[in-house]
Design goal:
Layout lengths: L1 E3 L2 H13 L5 H19 L7 E6 L3 H15 L3 E6 L8 H11 L4 E3 L5 H5 L6 E5 L15 H8 L6 E5 L26 E5 L11 H5 L1 E5 L10 E3 L20 E5 L7 H12 L4 E6 L4 H5 L6 E4 L3 H7 L7 E4 L7 H12 L3 E4 L2 H4 L5 H7 L4 E3 L3 H7 L1 H8 L10 H12 L2 E4 L3 E5 L5 E5 L14 H14 L4 H19 L7 H12 L1
Parallel strand pairs: 2-3, 2-5, 3-4, 5-6, 6-7, 7-8, 9-18, 10-11, 10-13, 11-12, 13-14, 14-15, 15-16
Antiparallel strand pairs: 1-9, 16-17, 17-18
Helix pairs in contact: 2-3, 3-4, 8-17, 8-19, 10-11, 14-15, 17-18, 18-19
């Protein structure tokens, strides 16, 4: 699996290599700039005219920009280099590369008003944003504004913008725009070139949209186990059944809503069955029994009138995973059903109404949870359960690193004492001990088809099926998140929630 780094982790990796004598800072800067130019040429081999504007900042990201300018010049490009800040205050490696560039061409001061010339007639074919990268820790101020950066991307169609490590203005740890009274531009670069490893902010928040395309540049640093796992196929390759009796693969129980409200639970049950649970039973109110019987075959049915009846059903020790929430309603009955399940206890997935029912008193829910639980909120449900944790995500960040959805999910898991899966294009799975992983359906792995009714219910069912098979809560949630998105990716346009369980055999076969 890939690991996503914070800006501090990236600095530590560079410092460790330098301190060990394996490389110098100047050599890393040279590799970064040279690799960036090679990637730009590969992405846009036919750029014309061959004229570039390189915007360099006051730190080492600016130093990378000086190297880019030099290598573009060596390829015959006309380069207009503009420096923000005082050259005399550049860090040593950046100062070295500033001097190397100054022997080839002039260094102009970067001023906001001058960017109008970049967008006018005779605009360059390439603009390189080497202003801040991962080093920004405070909101952008003059001369750099959101209007400047977004204008470069939305300018002449023939102009392409490449950002080094992170588009300027975006927090490398959270993917949030650091701005005081400025709206974040939707896109800040057509191509972002990240060095050594991808950064968290390139996958979280608005980062993916801001970055455009993302390409990783190898600068020769050793890979380590640090960072947050970005899930992939390798994380889901231990799901083959090894034979045995159906009960060897678990029995998942899915609670269903009343008449006319059973579709979500049926989707979840189908997901649990397709992911390999040996048996799946749908527990339905007696009035909904006939309706569900007409829609199901392999999924079994049991009438469950109330929490007492559910407690009796859970005396069957072969039922080892329970999923509830979708379609149950938000009244006292749902709260009683949740309490009965959590008192059993079983590996449990709480979704939708099972979460919303406790919006006015989340502490009551948290007090009943155990380590075998998985909560699967979307942002609205998360905000209702964890209002204080969610609040910083609603405020414009005034400094970096800004609070991220990853931070919020970890804090929520710690408070709840259960695994939390926070849904989104970058779905975050966090355990109470802070262990976390990201299933990122962004860039080439985007799965926009998941924005459809019932997709989240199916995800909850897949988690329940994995729990029934004996997979631990964190791994079950993480594997389900990746498989869920991969089903959508492989299906393509026109996806509806009913298609997701039916795609699982194809996805599993490919693994």
């Amino acid at each position: 699996m890939d690991r996503l780094l914070t800006a501090a982790m990236m600095r530590d990796a560079e410092r460790a290599a330098i301190d060990a004598g394996r490389v110098t800072g100047a050599e890393l800067m040279e590799r970064a700039g040279r690799g960036a130019v090679a990637a730009i040429m590969a992405a846009w081999p036919d750029l014309a005219p061959r004229r570039a504007v390189v915007l360099c900042g006051p730190g080492n990201n600016g130093g990378d920009g000086f190297v880019v300018a030099r290598h573009l010049h060596a390829r015959g490009w006309a380069v207009d280099l503009r420096l923000m800040g005082d050259a005399a205050r550049l860090p040593p490696d950046a100062a070295l590369n500033h001097a190397r560039w100054a022997a080839l061409g002039p260094v102009r001061a970067f001023r906001d008003e001058e960017t109008e010339g970049i967008r006018g007639d005779g605009a360059p074919s390439l603009v390189v944003d080497a202003l801040f990268g991962t080093g920004l820790s405070r909101p952008l101020e003059a001369p750099v504004t959101a209007r400047t950066l977004s204008g470069l991307v939305s300018g002449p169609p023939r102009t392409r913008v490449a950002a080094l490590d992170m588009p300027s203005g975006w927090c490398a740890d959270s993917g949030r725009f650091l701005a005081a009274a400025q709206d974040a531009p939707r896109t800040a670069a057509h191509l972002t070139l990240t060095f050594h490893a991808a950064k968290l902010g390139q996958f979280l928040g608005d980062g993916p949209g801001a970055c455009g395309r993302l390409e990783r540049i190898d600068i020769g640093l050793e890979r380590t186990g640090r960072g947050v796992a970005c899930l992939g196929p390798a994380d889901c390759r231990d799901l083959r059944k090894a034979g045995g009796h159906k009960y060897d693969h678990g029995h998942a129980l899915v609670l269903c809503g009343g008449p006319g409200r059973g579709g979500a639970a049926r989707l979840a049950a189908r997901g649990a069955l397709r992911i390999g649970a040996g048996l799946v039973t749908l527990a339905v109110p007696p009035a909904a029994l006939q309706e569900n019987a007409a829609r199901l075959d392999a999924v079994m049915l049991r009438p469950v009138r109330d929490a007492d009846a559910l407690a009796g059903l859970l005396e069957d020790g072969r039922i080892n995973a329970v999923m509830l929430g979708p379609g149950l309603g938000t009244g006292e009955r749902t709260r009683a059903l949740v309490a009965a399940v959590l008192a059993a206890p079983r590996a449990t997935v709480l979704d939708a109404d099972a979460l919303t029912s406790f919006s006015d008193d989340p502490g009551t829910l948290f007090a009943q949870l155990h380590e075998g639980c998985v909560l699967t909120p979307h942002d609205g449900e998360f905000a209702r359960l964890f209002p204080d944790i969610h609040a910083p995500l609603q405020r414009a960040p005034q400094e970096g690193p800004a609070t991220s959805r990853l931070d919020a999910a970890r804090a929520a898991a710690g408070r709840a004492g259960a695994t939390v899966l926070l849904k989104g294009p970058a779905t975050i799975v966090a355990a109470p001990d802070g262990t976390a992983a990201i299933s990122a359906a962004v860039y080439d792995a985007a799965a926009p088809g998941l924005a459809t009714a019932g997709a989240g219910d199916t995800l909850a069912g897949i988690i329940a099926g994995l729990l029934a098979r004996g997979v631990g809560p964190l791994s079950a949630a993480a594997q389900a998140a990746w498989l869920h998105a991969e089903c959508a990716r492989q299906f393509g346009p026109g996806l509806i929630a009913e298609d997701l369980p039916e795609m699982l055999p194809q996805v599993l076969r490919a693994l």
